[in-house]
Specification:
InterPro entries: WD40/YVTN_repeat-like_dom_sf, WD40_repeat_dom_sf, WD40_rpt. Keywords: Membrane, Transmembrane, Transmembrane helix. The chain is built from 1 helix and 31 strands. The chain is mostly beta strands and 390 residues long. The chain has 2 domains: 288 residues, 7 Propeller (Methylamine Dehydrogenase, Chain H), CATH 2.130.10.10; 33 residues. Strands 6, 7, 8, 9, 10, 11 and 13 form a 7-stranded mixed beta sheet that branches. A 4-stranded antiparallel beta sheet has the order 1-31-30-29, with no helix packed on it. A 4-stranded antiparallel beta sheet has the order 2-3-4-5, with no helix packed on it. The longest helix has 31 residues. The two termini are 47 Å apart.
């Protein structure tokens, strides 16, 4: 497809990953976009994104079949000094499973199926995602019985509990995430307008805000941790984290299903990529709130799960469907990264020097140049014909 002069390079469909069944509720890239995990009530599937092949799991005797277990959430860790990728899976019956990637397969770590609570795992988050030599990762898990658990994981698979917190009745910790500057834990309640910051060393409450949005089905922070986007029954909303004031409501289509959809900021925090209930994900400009691109999901219906992964050359985006009792393909998209403040030039993307000039002037200039070329060419043809006749 040809795009007008001055247009931005669009997202490109890289691959369709098949094999998942039933709704996908969580999807996650490993470090550097090497692997992709998709989890949900129908089980969990993992693909190698270089070969686009599924990665098998190695099960021990007595363990449940992975494709028959309900998984609520998935997240990856990377131990850099070991070149080790670890997949953490939160289950619907309160387990945290840890799987180590070894030679094109995943094997369970010693702490696999660590029993935490007999309740649904709502959210799992890790910090840092890349663990340096001699370091350990912090892991926080939230449960449907108003309970938060935090522990640490070393590269050898040693999982240790650090503390646990029982929240008051009515505080449903739908989303937990680490603050990147200091590793403290931000807890977002699904209902009740509550957001709490928990000290990751002691489990004590640092601050609590009670003027957050009334309903926060899913939450994602921007890079500087100054604002967040959340899914509400009316659509997505962007809010200031400290003041809890609304910043912008994206101009989306009316919501048909009040099921929470995931959304996230891109690496520059200028775009939002979020799911919809109309068979696509939307790329939304944060400043204007306008939808700039639609990433179509060919099976239609609810697109609930979204994840992104910046690599050295491009931004990877994955979207997944949430239609029950049927195959759920996973669609992988990409967009060339903006390096050194410029977009890569191509036949589909001619943004001359990134001058802030309206596109219509480029089109008018193009027509003038083409007209001059035709006129000059016609003149040369007449002169050549005259010489031949002479």
């Amino acid at each position: 497809m040809f795009y007008p002069f001055g247009s931005k390079l669009p997202y490109h469909n890289l691959a369709t990953l098949r094999g998942a069944w039933d709704a996908i509720t969580s999807i996650a890239f490993s470090a550097y976009g090497k692997h992709l995990a998709a989890a949900g009530p129908g089980g969990v599937n993992v693909w190698n994104l270089e070969s686009l092949q599924k990665i098998p799991f190695t099960l021990k005797q007595g363990e449940r079949e992975l494709d028959k277990a309900a998984f609520a959430t998935a997240v990856w860790l990377h131990f850099a000094h070991l070149s080790c990728h670890v997949l953490l899976l939160g289950t619907a019956d309160g387990h945290l499973q840890l799987w180590d990637y070894i030679e094109e397969r995943l094997v369970s770590l010693q702490s696999n199926s660590q029993f935490l609570r007999p309740h649904y795992v709502l959210s799992v988050n890790v910090f840092p995602c890349h663990v340096p030599l001699g370091g350990h990762a912090k892991i926080v898990v939230s449960f449907a019985d108003h309970f938060i658990w935090m522990g640490t994981l070393k590269g050898d698979g040693e999982l240790k509990a650090k503390f646990s917190v029982t929240l008051e009745e009515g505080f449903m910790p739908k989303t937990v995430c680490f603050e990147p500057s200091n590793g403290n834990i931000i807890v977002f309640s699904m209902k009740g307008r509550n957001v709490t910051l928990v000290d990751s060393q002691t489990g004590n409450t640092v601050w609590r805000k009670t003027d957050a949005p009334d309903y926060m089905g899913s939450v994602s922070l921007d890079g500087p941790c100054t604002k967040f986007i959340t899914s509400t029954p009316q659509g997505f909303g962007v809010y200031d984290l400290q003041k809890m004031t609304p910043l912008k409501r994206p101009k989306q289509q009316p919501v048909l299903l009040s099921i929470p959809k995931q959304a996230c900021f891109d690496e520059e925090n200028t775009k939002i990529i979020g799911g919809t209930d109309c068979g696509c994900a939307e790329v939304i400009d944060v400043k204007s709130g306008k939808v700039e691109h639609k990433l179509v999901y060919h099976q239609g219906g609810l697109v609930q799960s979204i994840a992104i992964c910046p690599t050295s050359e491009r931004l990877l985006v994955v979207i997944a469907g949430a239609n029950g009792n049927q195959p759920s393909d996973v669609i992988l998209w990409s967009k060339n990264r903006c390096l050194c403040g410029t977009e890569p030039a191509s036949s589909q993307d001619l943004d001359i020097c990134h001058l802030d000039i309206p596109k219509k002037y480029f089109r008018v200039g193009t027509y003038i140049i083409l007209g001059m070329m035709v006129f000059v060419g016609y003149g040369i043809f007449i002169l050549y014909s005259s010489e031949v006749c002479w």
